[in-house]
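hey
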């Protein structure tokens, strides 16, 4: 089908879609990495655009995933019982307080599907993770975007301003999405600030704290505390985590939400019956059991992130403070050219135009060798 006919056809079916979906644009995953991998040999491509973990998963997780394949003709456990129990034990909660997702993206979408709708408002921060807006719109809800801290904020440039977010919560609000730390800014809010924030939120408003990068921030970022600490006090609080980042299992798709058992029970009503696949469940369970591997990856990321940020700053670029495995870097007016030229040299970063940050690139912290490739390429393009 020609591009024009395809567009016509999309417009036709879009008009038939429910109102929230009509104005929606599909999630932008960045570059077509499969095509790029074909163009460059795999070893020549430096993939630092998707905040993946370059050190790879625990060998025990891979072994467990492989072993699970002998049962591939069976459905996976629809209750994800073993993984839920292991996560419950780790976080000091009961198994019914856990819901497993096909990645945490799926769960983030479902919160809006379940708790928001055409008469509801969903609150998120400017520069918050893109999926929140998508989830709100897909549910037909009205999205209220709170102002973020300014670009020149001393410690959290463009970070979540919890006071501004609280001020956006009206009687219509049903759901608030917070990312801690946030993607793409890399910023975080403190445990104390969050505690004060929760005291201002009515119990009828569900607060989702997305801790996809939480493992990187613990014991790293000043004042950072996981929202898990407050679950007991606020039944309208839910925390999401993923196995995609620190556990390096992005390709298998496993994430989870932890919250009040009643809230989770309502979420379970819309879960696709076998949403988490067998290798993902097996790998996630084994990964949880290999804390040493997890800690090694987190420590290596921290060393490389600080070296990379220092090297970029030394060359005169502004780098946001980061409690994650990526940095947000301001390249100014030449950003689009730099991004294109990096691709031409086999280095894939993430443009930030969709976030309203055309002067920035988000760069995942790679291995020492990958970061060196990036810096050499930058030197050649913009040195
Ligand atoms: C802040 C944040 N939340 C959630 C996700 C979704 O991760 P996944 O669906 O792989 O669990 C991502 C992925 O990049 C993210 O950056």
């Amino acid at each position: 089908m020609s591009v024009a006919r395809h567009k016509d056809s999309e417009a036709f079916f879009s008009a038939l879609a429910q109102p929230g979906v009509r104005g929606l644009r599909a999630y932008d995953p960045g570059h077509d990495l499969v095509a790029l991998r074909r163009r460059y040999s795999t070893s020549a491509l430096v993939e630092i655009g998707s905040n993946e973990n370059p050190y790879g998963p625990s060998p025990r997780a891979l072994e467990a995933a492989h072993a699970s394949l002998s049962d591939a003709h069976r459905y996976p456990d629809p209750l994800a019982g073993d993984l839920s129990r292991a996560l419950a034990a780790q976080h000091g909660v009961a198994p019914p307080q856990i819901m497993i997702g096909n990645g945490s993206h799926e769960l983030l979408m479902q919160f809006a599907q379940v708790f928001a709708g055409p008469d509801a408002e969903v609150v998120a921060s400017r520069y918050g993770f893109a999926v929140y807006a998508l989830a709100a719109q897909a549910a037909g809800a009205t999205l209220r975007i709170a102002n973020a801290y300014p670009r020149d904020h001393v410690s959290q440039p463009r970070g979540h301003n919890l006071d501004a977010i609280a001020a956006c919560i009206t009687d219509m609000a049903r759901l608030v999405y917070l990312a801690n730390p946030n993607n793409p800014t890399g910023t975080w809010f403190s445990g104390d600030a969050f505690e004060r924030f929760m005291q201002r939120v009515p119990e009828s408003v569900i607060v989702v704290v997305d801790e996809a990068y939480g493992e990187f921030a613990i014991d790293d970022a000043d004042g950072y505390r996981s929202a898990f600490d407050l679950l007991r006090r606020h039944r309208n609080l839910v925390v999401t985590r993923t196995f995609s980042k620190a556990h390096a299992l992005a390709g298998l798709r496993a994430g989870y939400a932890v919250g009040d058992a009643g809230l989770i029970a309502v979420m379970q009503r819309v879960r696709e019956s076998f949403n988490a696949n067998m290798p993902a469940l097996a790998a996630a369970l084994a990964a949880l059991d290999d804390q040493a591997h997890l800690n090694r990856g987190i420590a290596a990321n921290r060393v490389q992130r600080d070296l990379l940020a220092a090297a970029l700053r030394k060359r005169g670029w502004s780098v946001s403070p980061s409690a994650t495995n990526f940095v947000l870097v301001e390249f100014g007016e030449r950003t689009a050219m730099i991004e294109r030229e990096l691709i031409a040299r086999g280095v894939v970063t993430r443009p930030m135009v969709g976030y309203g940050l055309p002067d920035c690139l988000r760069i995942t912290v790679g291995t020492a060798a990958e970061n060196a490739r990036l810096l050499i390429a930058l030197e050649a393009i913009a040195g």
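The pocket of pyridoxal-5'-phosphate is lined by residues 51, 103-105, 129, 179, 183, 210, 212, 242, 244, 250, 255 (CB under 6 Å). Residues 17-47+292-382 form a domain with the Aspartate Aminotransferase, domain 1 fold (CATH 3.90.1150.10).
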